[in-house]
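> call design_seq(struct)
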């Protein structure tokens, strides 16, 4: 018996749901790569990425996933034997550090937890102690997708400044760009990376690096540079060099459409949508947690991200629960990863998501908890509904509440 036929809901924190408009924009023949329309697509994508990162710096597009952007970030700015400090809050900053070690960098991890955000005071203290200036870069993620911690990126910048330390500040915004504010220049970020397949609603396969003045200056002397990732190669006169070879055309068409959709909605509205839908999820989890078997992974409420929520499951097998949600109900939730393998599940609320997708997902979580006999407070979905009605009051809908009485015009072919 299954209730899953119909549209599957993908509620994993990447790749995320790709809008039909983005899929359609990709469904076209390949085109010439040396001249014509593709060159304009490249220029506009590089420019619009700067609008999303909020930087006057340079942007680079790689035919790669997020790990590729990590390697690009390190290899373009650092030299063999340089030390980097990773600020953990889950899986991903340490993983970036592991890559750094394999590239010949010396890696130091600031003591960290999956349950708390990075403590800016600890960063300041560690950097103050580095009187010899050995640390060349500080690596942190804005949202850790495993733990669902959101870090306070401007506060960490203030800590670096308070220590008077010159290290490059590098931020992984892979699970956050396009879901919450990110102000590369205003927050003093020297280098930022992201990928196509999370907040940017594009299929996996592209990643992006934004480099500010200090990162570009470091590039001049970095000895880890290799041809494929090298910014100088990519700044060459030929369009072909922007990708170090054949451009990933179809992904670029998709990205172009996805960014058009983000700008059409308006980034502040996109962030507000994420905030409200994330809070709906948290309201539901808080009620379920009253049953004693579930809890928020992230301890402090203000450190819970607006793109994903990690829920700890105590004394019950997440695998059986996840299988029920997927195979019976058609909702694919995220598994626990890293230290939370086998101990948690994750509800993504990132990218192309709306109220019915979130309410449907939360409804299936509650159904699955009931079906598997996992103790939980009743009424999580109701709490989410109540929150949405409060957060999106009828009076604020275009035209005021009165406007709600007018049915929308039928779309062509409807
Ligand atoms: C997904 C993710 C990555 C890794 O990206 P890939 O595209 O899988 O290589 C890195 N950092 C964060 C914060 C992520 O969420």
């Amino acid at each position: 018996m299954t209730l899953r036929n119909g549209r599957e809901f993908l509620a994993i924190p990447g790749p995320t749901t790709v809008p039909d408009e983005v899929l359609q924009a990709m469904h076209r023949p390949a085109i010439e790569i040396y001249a014509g329309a593709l060159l304009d697509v490249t220029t506009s994508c590089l420019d619009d990425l700067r609008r999303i990162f909020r930087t006057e710096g340079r942007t680079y597009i790689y035919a790669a996933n997020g790990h590729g952007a990590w390697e690009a970030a390190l290899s373009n700015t650092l030299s063999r034997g340089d030390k980097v400090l990773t600020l953990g809050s889950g899986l991903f900053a340490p993983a970036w550090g592991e890559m750094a070690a394999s590239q010949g960098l010396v890696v130091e991890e600031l003591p960290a937890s999956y349950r708390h955000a990075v403590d800016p005071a600890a960063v300041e203290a560690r950097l103050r102690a580095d009187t010899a200036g050995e640390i060349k870069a500080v690596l942190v993620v804005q949202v850790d997708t495993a733990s669902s911690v959101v870090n306070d990126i401007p506060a960490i910048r203030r800590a670096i400044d308070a220590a008077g330390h010159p290290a490059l500040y590098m931020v992984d915004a892979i699970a956050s760009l396009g879901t919450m504010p990110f102000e590369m220049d205003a927050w003093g970020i020297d280098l930022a990376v992201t990928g196509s397949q999370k907040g940017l609603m594009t299929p996996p396969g592209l990643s992006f690096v934004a480099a500010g003045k200090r990162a570009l200056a470091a590039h001049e002397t970095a000895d880890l540079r290799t041809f494929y990732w090298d910014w100088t190669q990519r700044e060459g006169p030929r369009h072909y060099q922007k990708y170090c070879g054949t451009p990933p055309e179809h992904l670029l068409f998709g990205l172009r459409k996805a960014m058009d959709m983000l700008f059409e909605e308006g980034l502040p509205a996109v962030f507000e949508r994420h905030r409200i839908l994330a809070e709906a999820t948290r309201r539901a989890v808080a009620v379920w947690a009253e049953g004693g078997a579930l809890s928020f992974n992230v301890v402090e409420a203000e450190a819970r991200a607006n793109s994903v929520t990690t829920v700890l499951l105590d004394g019950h097998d997440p695998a059986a629960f996840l299988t029920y949600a997927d195979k019976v109900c058609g909702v694919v939730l995220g598994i626990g990863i890293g230290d939370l393998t086998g101990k948690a599940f994750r509800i993504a609320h990132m990218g192309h998501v709306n109220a019915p997708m979130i309410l449907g997902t939360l409804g299936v979580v509650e159904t699955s908890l009931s079906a598997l006999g996992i103790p939980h407070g009743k009424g999580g979905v109701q709490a989410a509904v109540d929150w949405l009605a409060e957060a999106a009051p009828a009076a604020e809908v275009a035209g005021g509440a009165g406007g709600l009485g007018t049915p929308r015009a039928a779309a062509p072919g409807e």
